[in-house]
Amino acid sequence: MNVTGPTLPITRRSLLRATALGAAALTLPGFAGRANAQAPVKVAAIYTVPVEQQWVSRIHTAATAAVTRGEIEYVFSESTANGDYERVMREYSEAGHDLIIGEAFAVEQAARQVAADYPDKAFLLGSSFKPSEDTPNFAVFDNYIQDASYLSGIVAGALTKTGNIGMVGGFPIPEVNRLMRAFMAGAKEVKPDITFQVAFIGSWFDPPKAKETAFAQIDAGADLLYAERFGVSDAAQEKGILAVGNVIDTQSDYPETVAASALWHFEPTLDAAIAKVKAGTFTAEDYGVYSFMKEGGCTLAPLGTFEGKVPAAAMKLVAEKEAAIKAGTFVVEINDQEPKSN
């Protein structure tokens, strides 16, 4: 099945039935040759949450853009249970897809075993671990958008009046921790004595729980929220305080609430993988670098409705730090340790 525009939820079985027949073989180190490097790469994605979820939506958007360019054919399964993940990976591998993308955070061992069982397929999966020589066709990626998170923290530090910021995350894992830590470092550039309330809801997609957690932080004095999860900005909007977004830009939904967002752009990551599959050079690599700002993998969202509302001194600092990050003269620390309230 080719996705040529906005997609509607479809069953996994119907997606597999709709897959075009006759997949080309890959030309990878030690692999059989790919029959036609000019033909669209057949890509299948497996997501454990709905495609509307922040993190997954960025992957889905990049894949859809590649379809529009005619570079790939794309099918996907969303809200796949962890217990079903290995089976779906095998189904897509058997169905003739060249490149399988998704997330292996909760199914790492099983995902790598599937890759080992299908050495003529390419796998690019979100992972907390590094690539291994044992699975030379299994590459990893992650949203290393600490650069943009740091800049969004500068904005937040300039906008909080009480110096008390609430932060609601999903799980305290490296992928979340490093962005929270970078945000906190940016805020401290403006207000060194700032106070943070940090909480994790134990879910990737539970807006009601995130909202209730945010309400508790507001009751405890927070006048600005870091919205790592959906639901936090709803709480901020209802209470009339500000929020800073993560991964996607939701300002159009919260024009008077979301002051800034750190955006993840998955396009550089996916484009690099597609090119390597076509060239026959795909192998076990860490694609995390493609999320760095200097690679075009992340940006600070336009201020939009908050243009002119952020102090000029803070925006000057943002511009200076952004230029230094892109030039390589300033490096935002990657700190994967769980952040704590202070």
Please explain how this structure is put together.
The protein is an alpha/beta fold and about 350 residues long. The chain contains ten helices and eleven strands. It has helices at about 10-20, 55-70, 80-95, 110-115, 145-160, 175-190, 205-220, 230-240, 265-280, 310-325; strands spanning about 40-45, 70-75, 100-105, 120-125, 140, 165-170, 195-200, 225, 240-245, 260-265, 300.
Keywords:
single chain; 342 residues; alpha/beta; Rossmann fold; 5-stranded parallel β-sheet; 37% helix; 17% strand
**Can you tell me the residue ranges where pLDDT is under 50 for at least 5 consecutive residues?**
1-35
- Write down the CATH topology of the largest domain: Rossmann fold
Radius of gyration: 21 Å
CATH class of the largest domain: Alpha Beta
Number of helices: 10
Q: How many structural domains in the coordinates?
A: 2
Helix share bin: 25-40%
* Estimated structural class: alpha/beta
The span between the termini is: 51 Å
Write a short abstract of this structure.
This protein is of the alpha/beta class and 342 residues long. Helices cover 37% and strands 17% of the residues.
Record the SSE blueprint.
Blueprint lengths: L11 H7 L22 E6 L7 H15 L3 E6 L4 H13 L4 E5 L4 H10 L4 E5 L11 E4 L4 H14 L4 E6 L4 H17 L4 E6 L6 H13 L4 E4 L4 H8 L2 E6 L10 E7 L2 H13 L18 E3 L11 H16 L15
Parallel strand pairs: 1-2, 1-3, 3-4, 4-5, 6-7, 6-8, 8-9, 9-10
Antiparallel strand pairs: 10-11
